[in-house]
Amino acid sequence: MTKPSIPVGIICSQHGPYQAMGREILKSAMMAVDEINEQDEFDFSIAAHVRDPRGIISEYHTVCDDLIRNVAVEHIIGCYTSASRKQVLPIVERTDRLLWYPARYEGFECSDNVIYVGASPNHNVLPLVRYVLDNLSREIFCVGSNYVWTWETNRVTRELVTAARGKILAERLLELGESAVTHIVDEIVRRRPPVVFNTLVGSSSYDFIRAFHAATLAAGLDIPMLSCSLCEPELKIAGPASAGCITSSAYFESIRLPENQAFVARWKARHGEHSSPSVDGQSAYVAVYLLARALQRAGTSDIGEVRRAAAGHRYNSPQGPVWIDGSNNHCVLTPRLAVSNAEGQFDIFWEADAPVKPDPYLTQLDIAASPARDGTLPNAPHLRVVK
């Protein structure tokens, strides 16, 4: 018998300044769709309707509107940048659809019409900044793209560092897709900051990494670079210059879990032995599975029923156990820290003892309290970061 088909929209840019990551999200999402459609466990198939906004921010609203009006999708997977999510958010709320957002993001948002599958700030920014404060420096030089991801990430970083009696040395921003990085690299070489936090997106980040590596090498400087977004496919794009970056993420290809080893084997069989999954791509894969399992449990595609069926349902994903916190629609994830190596992979040197509940508004963080003697930052149930 032919299974009934459920239309699902997939929105990710295959062209433009962050096309590399858009393509990774699509590859991972379609891998999950194909796997689900072949499994007897599911009594339906997923019909993927892919749209390419080409990296043009206003196009995200246009293609989302097309999927809803002309394809009648109730569930949409995708968007990579926060700017693109902000374009889609009004229409999915107005038409009562559900966006399954795979990317790690800056937090400070909670919509009934979004399932936030990627990392919240307490999963990536907090572990990274605490590691830096405890082990490297209390002075950070920030470089990023001029949009909400960098603005909010820098704001949280600034307040954490200030609470530890540290200092943000500079915040230098480039427009999305901007490649003129020389003036920032020259300033870094001149000022010699102890660490650089890179929140650039797409091609801007790759250009900066290469220029930063060449300039610091020529000057005989050893300045650690930090990231909350760098992933294996991007290491290959940036080349050898990307080695040594300290990165915070819920997923790395090198995770030694049976579920991940099986996932990576399937990925390489499908995309080539020298390819690697990315954190946001793997998250899109997880999003498709979370959606499919919720559809199966709900017995309908109605978003209210699906949302209720998805909440609290544990999925042993490639990155480890994942489930949706029904109180805020964000995922419970396991934070990890790693350093990139010359082989285009990450060596994990720390991970949380157990999956961590999402705290998108950082309500469990009291940065106004004095740091402990050892420099760690205390937790308390007070909202201090939001102003």
From TrEMBL:
Ranges that cross the membrane: none
Annotated CDD domains: PBP1_AmiC
Pfam families: Peripla_BP_5
One GO molecular-function entry: amide binding
Descriptive protein name: Amino acid/amide ABC transporter substrate-binding protein (HAAT family)
Organism, scientific name: Bradyrhizobium macuxiense
